[in-house]
Amino acid sequence: MCIRMIRLLARLDRLDRRWLYLTLVVAVAFPLFVDVKLPSRMGHEARGLYDAIERLDTKSIVLVHSDWDAGTLGELKGQFTAIIAHLFRNNIKFAVISAIPQGPAFSDEVVDRLAAKYGKKYLDDWVQLGYRIPTSNIAQGIQSLSKDFRGTAPTEIRENRDVSTIPWLAQVSNCGDFDLLISVSYAPYLEYIQFGYEVYGTPYVAGVCSISTTNMYPLMDAGQLKGMLVGARGGAEYEGIMGLPEYDAQMKATEKERKKRWSDLSYATKVIKSQSWAHLLLIFGAIAGNIGAWARMKEEGKKSR
């Protein structure tokens, strides 16, 4: 019986790797079609960003720096979607700006869809400032934007309206006139801390890819970075906060209404579920592979005797 079991386990070490690849594809795709509940713990980073927006009122103005595209979409689209939905839900006006040429096209698709859902109008509730900060010198561009907003972004790009003619933007001349600075990009832009928070006292929060967060925690501990979304995990946490009953209590929404309202806030949640299933498979594969290697060595040892 023991010999038969060892022979059976030894097959794991000789398993065709193509079966593993196929299983990995199934594991990644499965959560996209089947609603699998996974426990989620809300980190202090996501709560910090959520609370920074919650502290704003309807007279507040926010600058959203959107620098995500096809290369970072998996980690950042969910973050951006949840943030924009939160701003629209709280009736907070905002301007979107980019430091990459393709940025406006990606952000507009999300903002236009959510604007239609929440009944928001372009120019009245938000504007697209476009690609205004040069990719080759982002630091100088953010410094210029912080000191001279109208000089750096004199017009919005859809109707070519001067920002001084848009009532809620007419008062903005530098970063001190914004109530919150938000960036969604591969890495945080520390220039917003240097020129926005330290000079004018405007709070700064960021959504970033997971690999870029390691050296950001000291800034959060110091209060210079008020909140942060960490990759797909951060986006999923934020989506969770947006749908939690205790945070939605003031809306007096039923569970059915809540699910309908946040039905499109699931991109990052789906990504993190697929990622979690893939990680579980890799852990199982590592365990199974080691068991197979051990059984094979046992089997070869018995044969050599």
Question: How do the strands line up in the largest sheet?
Answer: 3-2-1-4-5-6
Task: Give the averaged pLDDT, no decimals.
Answer: 84
Large-scale geometry: elongated
Q: Helix and strand string, N-terminal first?
A: HHHEHEHEHHEHEHEHHH
Poorly predicted regions are 245-252
The level of helicity is 40-55%
Content-based structural category = alpha/beta
> Count of DSSP E strands?
6
- Strand content is 5-15%
Features:
10% strand, single chain, 12 helices, alpha/beta, elongated, six-stranded parallel β-sheet, 305 residues
Write the layout of secondary structure elements.
Elements: H1 2-10, H2 17-33, H3 44-54, E1 61-66, H4 73-89, E2 93-98, H5 103-118, E3 126-131, H6 138-147, H7 149-152, E4 180-184, H8 191-200, E5 204-208, H9 217-221, E6 227-230, H10 231-243, H11 255-261, H12 267-304
Parallel strand pairs: 1-2, 1-4, 2-3, 4-5, 5-6
Helix pairs in contact: 1-12, 2-12, 3-10, 4-5, 4-10, 4-12, 6-8, 10-12
Description:
The chain is an alpha/beta fold and 305 residues long. It has helices at 2-10, 17-33, 44-54, 73-89, 103-118, 138-147, 149-152, 191-200, 217-221, 231-243, 255-261, 267-304, and strands at 61-66, 93-98, 126-131, 180-184, 204-208, 227-230. Helix content is 51%, strand content 10%. α9 (217-221) links the parallel β5 and β6 (227-230). The longest helix has 38 residues, at 267-304. The chain is elongated. The protein starts with a helix and ends with a helix.
